[in-house]
Amino acid sequence: MQMPPLDPAILARRSEIVAALRALVPGEGVIDDLEGMRPYECDALSAYRQMPLVVVLPETVAQVSAILRYCQDNKVKVVPRGAGTSLSGGSMPVGDAILLGLGKFNRVLEIDYANRCARVQPGVTNLGISKAVEHEGFYYAPDPSSQIACSIGGNVAENSGGVHCLKYGLTTNNLLGIEMVLMTGEVVRLGGKHLDSEGYDLLGLMTGSEGLLGVVTEVTVRLLRKPSTARAVLLGFPTEAGAADCVAAVIASGIIPGGMEMMDKDAVKCAEAYVGAGYPMDAEGLLIVELDGPAVEVDYLVERVSGIARDRGATTVRVSHDEQERVLFWAGRKAAFPAVGQISPDYMCLDGSVPRGRLVEVLAEMRQMSKKHGLRVVNVFHAGDGNLHPLILFDANDPGELKRAEEFGADILRLCVRVGGVLTGEHGVGIEKRDLMGEQFTEIDLDQQMRVKCAFDPDHLLNPGKVFPKLRRCAELGRLVVHQNKIPFPDIPRF
Amino acid sequence: MAGTIKPRDAKELRQAVEWALNDGVTLDVRGQGSKLALGKPMICDQVLDVSGISGIVDYAPEELVVTLRAGTPIREVEALLAQRNQMLAFEPPDLGPLLGRETGQGTLVGAVMGNLAGPRRLSAGAARDHLLGFSGVNGRGEAFKSGGKVMKNVTGYDLSKLLAGSWGTLAVLDEVSVKVLPAPDQTRTLLLHGLSDEAAVKAMCAAMGSPYEVSGAACIKDRTALRLEGVAPSVEARLKGLRDLLAATGAPMEELGTLESRTFWRDVRDVAPLSSARDTVVWKISCPPTEGPAIVARIKAQRPSVEAFYDWSGGLIWLALPSNADADQAIVRGALGSTGGHATLIRGTDGVRARIPVFQPQPAALAALASRVKESFDPKGLFNPGRMG
């Protein structure tokens, strides 16, 4: 993985840039010493790190606007950062770019229960929103596993998901509005407390744009009333195919569970050893199906799902009887990553999506690859929506292993694309999958996306080195050669 | 009268756009043309008719995805899904009767291009939330794609969101993949009679904030309607819960069964209460739900003959006003005040729509950004020029 070469002219101007930022953000909002910048040198994709040019932590929208305008005028690059929990390197610093941290934007501005929404600053954590409204029985639905730490601004940038996406959608389906600052320093508002946009859906475009288009300074999210009941069903199958069939059968029968997770045998073993959730050790494929809603509905659906599972040969069918047991069923799944960390010095977490019908075949092929690369792989996934999280186990102290793990990961993601899936379901492209974009998109596809980028950031100053494998200049992308009247009318029906 | 080009497949579509680009020909892009009376009237050199690129490509009910060509009639898609007890959850309205046409016309992609949605917008989202991916041709005559056929996908920019609601001004699509959902077993409606607008919106917001999973909340005259969908035991339990929750309103209550409910909500979806009078203009206002009654009251103060009803818990106002030279746009848009909402003229004569902005005018910085986005797809302005004005 290569980052763009650093611009010596910018590095040479470092002290001038730091001084200019100090004039815009007074006090301790500008950090330029090595020790102070150390916590920012990487995000949750910690295999890759680079010290930023300087860190700036603004407190007001006016300051964000002034910083971006300065950067635009002086052609200085900017990497925006929320809580730094990106698994794809989305907020990894760049040596010749300012790191713009939004951590001080940490206030809940307004909670409006009648209109079921909350207006918050981007640095508020995902869980912080739910915590702020839980006493009234409300919550914010998307629940990425980093929800205790990740910021809502970062969720907007990455279009974060979670285990309840199948029923409740991703970030993009739960946003009502944002305020953002463009590279010119202009502040624009998209959406609000109402539904749907008045022109092009720029809110939808911004969501998942990985910090390449603008800096979000305020977010309005939709709040949902908590379901009155939730119960989980633990289903063990003697084969992975049996578990996968059960997932398809549940959905085909018209049931959309609140969550439907699958773990392979190795993941079950790790998780069980780590938290003792009572998982069946003889299962080759384990499903956790959560059903939520009014109690009578949940009871009814639990029966139906259990019946479908038995018909598909489930050897374990256990229904949670109280909240404690439901949480225990989930504890193993939620601890799967740290549990894997117990049996391997390092692991790499991938994030492809595939059509559910191809799940079994993808798993089998992944095992073949595992043999080829000589590295183990453990699988947990959001089975309901076909979102895989293979964990490749390796030892970073062995210099050859990181490279092999990267190659293995790339092979898995190519496989996802080959069976009709995509490179990333919820973690984002960042730097991690940047060089694989050509597997899913043609050059024309990518050029069109880069032209959209040019509409927001014509000098490619925002979050450089991310998402696009090869950045083309906007002037070049915008060139249009027209052969005036030289193309004959094609042979198409006309009247 | 402009001539018509009718490509038969994606390749011919690309050739047609390439030709138009080189000859500087502007294109009126349409499927069945069922929504031609919506948006700014256009003067184009040619009609690009995509209705010949039609048919279902792939339908996998257990994957909850249908892939189809751009000219496929929406009726064909809905009939196919119904065979497997599935549906387009965003409930695309049939605006035919409102716009003075027959019912049952239009393509699914046409509904997506308008980002249309019915009463279930509240709980299930709009067309934008269900478009998983597409392929098409941009204004440079290049075939490109975005998104995919899977539920969870954050690979690259989400151009599907931009295309949904772009009224054909960014690219011409040839194929789309759309998320579908199981159709509910049962549909019931709780009607509350005699509430004022304010009390109705208060009741609807309370219902939406309850755990009873309300999938439609509308108020037509003095009838406030709340829709519950799902399996029978659940619907029964939630109905009871809602009755208890709203008992304090003192309103007489009535229940509609599945069949009656379907008719009722289809009428709400298709704006039937305002469709019959032909000499009115019709506005659609999107606003924060609790602001709905005040907005209507401000308009009523100046135009007492206004007819209005609410959907989306008060957040969608349908308004009919006697036709006049400017559709009373200053009064309607002025009534929004600082609510942040927007008003779109859905029905008006060609003359009125040519005179006033059909879509809500945007602040300068946002309008400039939107026009740069348009240029990034269609630098020569070939597709539906001016339609979103």
Describe the structure in brief.
Helix content of chain A is 36%, strand content 19%.
Proportion in β-strands of chain B: 25-35%
Query: What is the CATH architecture term of the largest domain in chain A?
Result: 2-Layer Sandwich
What's the β-strand tally of chain B?
Answer: 18
Please tell me the overall pLDDT of chain B.
97
Question: How far apart lie the N and C ends of chain B?
Answer: 22 Å
Radius of gyration of chain B: 21 Å
Number of helices of chain B: 12
Fold and architecture overview:
The complex is a heterodimer of chains A (495) and B (389). Chain A folds into four domains: 8-101, 2-Layer Sandwich (Uridine Diphospho-n-acetylenolpyruvylglucosamine Reductase, domain 2); 108-225, 2-Layer Sandwich (Uridine Diphospho-n-acetylenolpyruvylglucosamine Reductase, domain 3); 229-337, Alpha-Beta Plaits; 344-428, Alpha-Beta Plaits (2-Layer Sandwich). In chain A, 36% of the residues lie in helices and 19% in strands. Chain A has helices at residues 8-12, 14-24, 34-37, 61-74, 126-133, 152-158, 165-168, 202-206, 240-252, 265-275, 295-311, 323-334, 336-343, 359-373, 399-418, 437-440, 443-456, 474-478, and strands spanning 30-31, 54-56, 77-81, 97-101, 108-112, 117-120, 138-139, 175-181, 187-191, 215-222, 224-225, 229-237, 259-264, 285-293, 316-319, 346-349, 377-382, 387-394. Chain A has a seven-stranded antiparallel beta sheet, with helices on both faces. The longest helix of chain A is centred in the C-terminal third of the chain and has 20 residues, at 399-418. Chain A is globular. Chain B is an alpha+beta fold and 389 residues long. Helix content of chain B is 30%, strand content 25%. In chain B, 59% of the residues are buried. In chain B, the strands form four sheets. In chain B, strands 14-11-13-12-16-17-15-18 form an eight-stranded antiparallel beta sheet, sandwiched between helices. In chain B, strands 4-5-9-7-8 form a five-stranded antiparallel beta sheet. A three-stranded parallel beta sheet of chain B has the order 1-3-2, with no helix packed on it. Chain B starts with a strand and ends in a 12-residue tail after the last helix. Chain B has twelve helices and 18 strands. Classes of the chains: A alpha+beta (495), B alpha+beta (389). At the A-B interface, strand 9, helix 8, helix 9, helix 11 and helix 17 of A face strand 1, helix 1, strand 8, helix 5 and strand 10 of B.
